[in-house]
Amino acid sequence: MPNWVYNGLTIEGNPEQVKSLIKQMNKPFVYSITAVGDLAYDVKQTKYVNPIFAFHNIYNYRDAGITDEVYHGQPPRSTDFSQAMKFETNDWYNFNVREWGTKWDVSTEGLEYTDNGDGTSTIEGYFDSAWSPPVEAFTTLAQDWDSCYIELRYFEPGMGFIGLYDSEGGDDYWENVDELLETTAEEDPVLHGLIEDFGAADWYVSEEEMETVWGGNNEA
Questions:
Q1: Is residue 107 part of a domain?
Q2: Mapped to the 3 state alphabet, what secondary structure does the chain carry?
Q3: pLDDT (tens digit, 9 = 90+) per residue, 13-30?
Q4: In this structure, what are the phi and psi dihedrals at residue 59, rounded to the nearest 5 degrees?
Q5: Residue 76 has pLDDT above 70, yes or no
């Protein structure tokens, strides 16, 4: 199973634009890859009649002119890490990572639409993605919907990275979040806001706090 990246999404625009975007993202579709492990999968058709918000509806392999046969193929096993990280082939894994930024589509039942009553409306909420944030998917969405503001915030506590992408050129990324909590986090308002948003500090416990939790050094 993957490390899960926690994502926060905000999309803002006038109500007509945002409702049109929702209509596109919620189009029913049939998808044939069913995950049964990290790279293990079955080719089995599943119909998504109410996907809410699907990367498939931003850009999919058929949009790219890729055949079912090629897309359903087994990802190649490469011993050359630098070559594998180029994601050049068009099987489901490499296409999804290259075009979406993550290998699986997402479940986004937590997204909510709000009419702000001031001529704007928003889509906001949280969802998880596998291993990495779907920056590429939202970059493509922003190009198609340049009348809307799109912001993606993300945090992965296991690998310790956190960041923010937005459609106005924002592209902030930090590693070693546990160390930043004790050094520069308070000095950078964007980083500080992300740490507060995700409750990142709660994922990391200092040695002193650990001793308190476990009752000191347990010496006899």
A1: yes
A2: CCCEEEEEEEEEECHHHHHHHHHHHCCCEEEEEEECCCCCEEEEEEEECCCCCCHHHCCCCCCCCCCHHHHCCCCCCCCCHHHHCCCCCCCHHHHHHHHHCCCCCCCCCCCEEEECCCCCEEEEEEEEEECCCCHHHHHHHHHHCCCCEEEEEEEECCCCEEEEEECCCCEEEECCHHHHCCCCHHHCHHHHHHHHHHCHHHHCCCHHHHHHHCCCCCCC
A3: 999 999 999 999 988 888
A4: -160, 125
A5: yes
Asked if 201 and 186 count as a contact pair (C-beta separation under 8 A), the reply is: no
- Confidence category of residue 40, pLDDT binned at 50, 70, 90: low
- Domain contains 208: no
Of 20, 15, 7, the residue nearest 145 (C-alpha): 20
Count of domains observed in the chain: 1
Q: Is 130 within 8 Å of 2 (Cβ atoms)?
A: yes
Residue 33 in tokens: 């890859």
d(CA 78, CA 57): 30
Per-residue pLDDT at 73: 87
**Domain contains 211:** no
Instruction: Say what the pTM is.
Output: 0.85
Q: What is the domain range of residue 197?
A: 4-203
In a domain, 216, yes or no: no
Q: Report whether 4 contacts 104 (CB < 8 A).
A: no
